[in-house]
């Protein structure tokens, strides 16, 4: 090992690896620098556990002469035979280093090392990488060098792991913040918050298509079913909408009991209102199909569901609202208020989808005029439209 070159790698990591613009680039550049320093790497892996409701962790795999592979694994991996016999399980669960020289019969205990052996690997090391909060992550190092890793190579790996842990923790913390904000307030709101829009009164005016929906008969459902069952039903019910909303460019801002508020931003400079509203309508149709197909068994009964969604388009105030140091990043304004009032009309008319006159004028479609309705808080009655393809449900 070239000591001065190794120190340059360590200093580069300590300085923040500024020459790399992404975790994948950082992984590749770090490995290439280590090879120049004399570490005979053929494959390197870094495995980061995440704070995410569905994803157990992310991995970045570098191989000599190839692009870095980026992958994610869900929590189900913990129950698989592959993980049970993986060297990484020992690293994660016990915080211990695992060495697997291919000429050592003990390496046969790990099926993964058989795969590495078939690719010409001679030595393997998996090391714990501890963050400041005590959480244990992992790195893996393999070589095809005929003699495997020398003592100097192992010492170099140990010297690199600590600064690698610090820069990895910084990257992970920022990504965790982004994921949590995305999960709890939405992608665009999260980006604005991370960008510094965190004070009460920080807000923008934005033109958007507005989606406001709720489930029919939710109060009665909540009264006759256990709370745990109701929560499970709500999660499945919201899945029917969120997938469609996000798939068509919308952002879910808020869940309110059985209600859902989402916005689809319109770029006033591009003039894409008609395109955005068409995607909103398509999301509403997809959600309608998914909710109609949702069947939830409760004992001997299969519960079926209906919902209503109001679509409107207008200007909203989008930003921080709240009291003291407890803020909510949300949207308000007359356009949101009108959408909320229109949503109540879906139930009265037995409709799944209703649209304001503004939305119907922007989204050219075979709309059916349902009439004019007085709206609480608005001086003028509002003309409401429904989908001609829909047959109104008979209201009990």
From TrEMBL:
One of its GO terms (biological process) is cAMP biosynthetic process. The lineage of its organism: Bacteria, Pseudomonadati, Pseudomonadota, Alphaproteobacteria, Hyphomicrobiales. GO terms for molecular function: adenylate cyclase activity. It is an enzyme of class 4 (lyase). This is Adenylate/guanylate cyclase domain-containing protein. It comes from Bradyrhizobium symbiodeficiens. Keywords: Lyase. Residues 209-343 form the Guanylate cyclase domain. Its EC number is 4.6.1.-. PANTHER family: ADENYLATE CYCLASE, TERMINAL-DIFFERENTIATION SPECIFIC-RELATED, BLR2264 PROTEIN. InterPro entries: A/G_cyclase, Adenylyl/Guanylyl_Cyclase_3/4, Nucleotide_cyclase. Pfam families: Guanylate_cyc.
